[in-house]
Q: What sequence folds into this?
């Protein structure tokens, strides 16, 4: 069955959504239809990509930031998250966790085949029986924004696994909260290292090299100074609320 259209005849490569766990998606849960709801009464919005390096004019065929590390990775996830929330989350859910109406994009495989399908839909949109189900974003999103959103989606961790570790995450949050603004670099690094260690234990659902959750983001923020402990605490608290 074509996972995009629900038809029994196979479509072409671009019509097949590359999912790591296809059995979790029912036929109605299709990206293009979901995006129609996501944009039903909200115009597509451009995304501010300040802080990301410029990419070549020609659109890449694979995510150029899939192997990114450090500042670049966290900036791509931050900007991608904002772009996702303003254009996609209404249907696909916060943190890209679908509530059932739309497909769970966290399962879209982080490889060239998943990228090809993603680009085709994002850039060109989708029409069915003459009706626009998803508007094209080619003239709205810059290449940097397109790949930042892709990076955000594919680095989402398994939320169910994280929920099972709520007590551990709460303990880490409390350690961050207890850090004084005068904490030494060694004290800060000890907490940040434990945040990274725990965060890295959660795999992505897309097969991407690593996940990026509020834990790693909080660690990255802490390393810029102990005075950012309150902001890091709020990041982790948001994870617990979710």
A:
């Amino acid at each position: 069955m074509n996972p995009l259209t629900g038809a029994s005849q196979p479509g072409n490569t671009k019509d097949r959504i590359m999912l790591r766990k296809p059995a979790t998606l029912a036929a109605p849960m299709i990206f293009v239809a979901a995006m129609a709801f996501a944009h039903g009464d909200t115009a597509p919005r451009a995304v501010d990509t300040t802080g990301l390096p410029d990419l070549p004019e020609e659109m890449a065929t694979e995510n150029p930031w899939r192997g990114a590390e450090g500042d670049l990775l966290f900036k791509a996830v931050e900007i991608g998250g904002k772009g996702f929330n303003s254009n996609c989350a209404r249907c696909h859910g916060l943190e890209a966790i679908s509530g059932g109406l739309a497909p769970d994009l966290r399962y879209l495989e982080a490889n060239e085949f998943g990228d090809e399908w993603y680009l085709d839909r994002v850039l060109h949109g989708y029409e069915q029986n003459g009706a626009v189900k998803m508007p094209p974003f080619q003239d709205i999103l810059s290449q940097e924004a397109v790949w930042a959103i892709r990076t955000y989606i594919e680095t989402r961790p398994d939320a169910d696994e994280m929920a099972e570790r709520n007590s551990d995450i709460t303990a880490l949050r409390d350690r961050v909260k207890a850090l004084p603004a005068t904490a030494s670099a060694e004290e800060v690094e000890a907490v940040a290292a434990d945040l990274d260690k725990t965060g890295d234990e959660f795999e992505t659902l897309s097969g991407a090299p690593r996940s990026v959750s509020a834990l790693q983001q909080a660690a990255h923020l802490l390393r810029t100074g102990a005075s950012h402990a309150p902001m890091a605490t709020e990041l982790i608290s948001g994870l617990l609320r979710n």
